[in-house]
Write a structure and sequence with these properties.
Elements (H helix, E strand, L loop, with lengths): L1 E4 L17 H10 L4 E5 L9 H14 L2 E5 L5 H14 L3 E4 L10 H18 L2 E5 L6 H11 L4 E5 L11 H8 L3 E6 L1 E6 L6 E6 L8 H10 L12 E3 L9 H21 L4
Parallel strand pairs: 1-2, 1-10, 2-3, 3-4, 4-5, 5-6, 6-7, 7-10
Antiparallel strand pairs: 8-9
Helix pairs in contact: 1-2, 3-4, 4-5
Length: 272
């Protein structure tokens, strides 16, 4: 199933535009594009929602025919418990998190301890906790911890673009993580020379115009022995790394165009 992350609305939700989109706006726009999944990722205001606000958000999602997934950062048991509460209230089947969060960068032993403390609570609630591939932690370490805990409710969010900054090849990372992938962040990427030809910039591109091997990754995930994979495959959640384009109008227009282009490309490739 194709879904949209709030990262696909990064600029349109930001205070740098005159009339930022609200979370309700994002849900309505996702549904208007014929999708059934939205991932509310790294959206701190959600933590402050009252029970009534959460109920209204869930009611809107129901009205629009949307499944909600959530995303936070870190492995602090207190943080993961709070996001589990939010997931239960919103009937979200998945919470994406990351090994590190700001200055909180535990080693593998501490990360293992923290996860063993909270994963049973995710199991009891029927919610999957999935840690994203990111440059701060190598995927060998990430897979080792996930494999060691051995829970069907602990998986990995595959983001092949993130790992390039750690000099890990996306194909290698996909193969290594495939048995544990519960979610796939889809964004294409490319390198470009910086001004003056000194160094490179790694940024996003519209899907199909960069270096992401979409078909190869999909094939690897489809053939993996993976308890997290639904009958219709791993959910594909669209994100962007769109740089600011100099003014709000150009930036928000391009962000919306990239989203439409990515959705159309995934549908043409039968990745819905």
């Amino acid at each position: 199933m194709i879904g949209l992350s709030t990262y696909a609305y990064f600029w349109r939700m930001s205070e740098q535009v005159p009339e930022p989109m609200s979370l309700d706006d994002v849900l309505r726009d996702t549904a208007a594009q014929g999708l059934r999944l939205v991932q509310i990722c790294d959206h701190p205001p959600l933590v402050t929602y009252t029970d009534d606000q959460l109920a209204r958000l869930r009611s809107l999602a129901d009205e629009l025919g949307l499944t909600i997934e959530l995303g936070t950062r870190g492995t602090s048991p207190a943080v993961l418990r709070r996001w589990l509460e939010l997931a239960v209230a919103l009937r979200a089947p998945l919470v994406r998190s990351m090994w590190t969060a700001g200055d909180d960068r535990p080693d593998a032993i501490e990360t293992d301890r923290r996860l063993r403390e909270v994963v049973p609570e995710y199991e009891a609630a029927g919610v999957t906790l999935a840690l994203e591939t990111y440059e701060q932690v190598g995927t060998v370490e990430l897979v080792a911890v996930v494999r060691s805990i051995g829970s069907d409710r602990l998986g990995i969010v595959l983001d092949p673009a993130n790992v390039v900054a750690r000099l890990e090849h996306p194909d290698d990372v996909t193969a290594r993580c495939a048995p544990f992938v519960a979610n796939w962040h889809v964004k294409d990427f490319a390198f470009s020379r910086k001004d003056g030809w000194v160094g490179f910039a790694l940024t996003s591109t519209p899907l199909g115009e960069g270096l992401l091997d979409l078909d190869g990754i999909a094939a690897t995930l489809a053939t993996a022995d993976n308890p997290h994979v639904r009958r219709d495959g791993v959910n594909r959640v669209v994100e962007h790394w769109l740089p600011w384009q100099g003014d709000p109008e150009t930036t928000t227009r391009l962000e919306a165009e990239w989203t439409t282009t990515t959705i159309d490309h995934l549908r043409r490739k039968n990745h819905d």
